[in-house]
Amino acid sequence: MDEILRIQPIVQDFTATTLAAIPNVFGRLTYLASLRDLSSGRYEHCGLEAVYPQEAVQEALEFCHQEIFSRVLEMPLSVQEQDLSEFLEGMPSVLPETIVHWRQLEAYRILPPEGAPDYLRELFFSNLRALLEILESQHSTTRSGG
Q1: Which domain holds residue 31?
Q2: Predicted TM-score (pTM) of this structure
Q3: What does each C-alpha distance from 139 to 89, 98, 126, 133 come to in angstroms?
Q4: Residues 40-63, buried b or exposed e (16+ Cβ, 10 A)?
Q5: Is 132 exposed, middle or buried (0-12, 13-18, 19+ CB in 10 A)?
Q6: What is the SS3 assignment for 79?
Q7: Cα–Cα distance between 78 and 27 in angstroms, integer?
Q8: Helix 118-145 and helix 95-105: axis angle, to 10°?
């Protein structure tokens, strides 16, 4: 309980100033995953580290990453599909290309937090593969029908 109280101001600050500006859950999850150094597993956020102790920032970002990951898994697949579609539409490339790229490279494999249990990671990956297939088929139908 003391740990939660210790990081609560950081979580509130980060949620209000940074995450609130990201319009969808997949965007938030991707942003949090991008803050994690893939070689060390440590999160880095210069703005927060300038104000708060580095270890507390680490714990707060890890907590936020786990919370957003859980939120995605708790969403019905239809809501995940809509959210993922909105997120991918915001990418710089054309949506059908982005979808194909994500499917081929499995870019989503870096999104779960490091401590996530294997069964939740696999559920997440399975959902993403299915959602990307659905989105790809919708956009190939749209192109050929339009």
Answers
A1: 2-145
A2: 0.91
A3: 12, 11, 20, 10
A4: eeebebeebeeebeeebbbbbbbb
A5: buried
A6: helix
A7: 17
A8: 150
What's the CA angle centered on 135, arms 133 and 136, to 5 degrees? 65
* Total count of domains within the chain: 1
Query: How far is 145 from 89, CA to CA, in rounded Å?
Result: 20
- Bridge partner residues of 43 (DSSP): 36
Query: Is residue 145 very low, low, confident or very high in pLDDT (cuts 50, 70, 90)?
Result: very low
Distance, in Å, from the CA atom of 113 to the CA atom of 77, rounded to the nearest integer, reads 20
Q: Which pLDDT score, from 0 to 100, does residue 5 have?
A: 77
Q: Report which DSSP code applies to 95.
A: H
Number of Cβ within 10 Å of residue 70's Cβ equals 13
For the segment 2-33, what is each residue's pLDDT rounded down to a tens digit? 667 789 999 999 999 999 999 999 999 999 99
Integer CA distances (angstroms), 23 to 16, 28, 89, 105, 135, in order? 13, 8, 12, 24, 19
Structural contact between residues 44 and 37, judged by C-beta atoms closer than 8 angstroms: yes
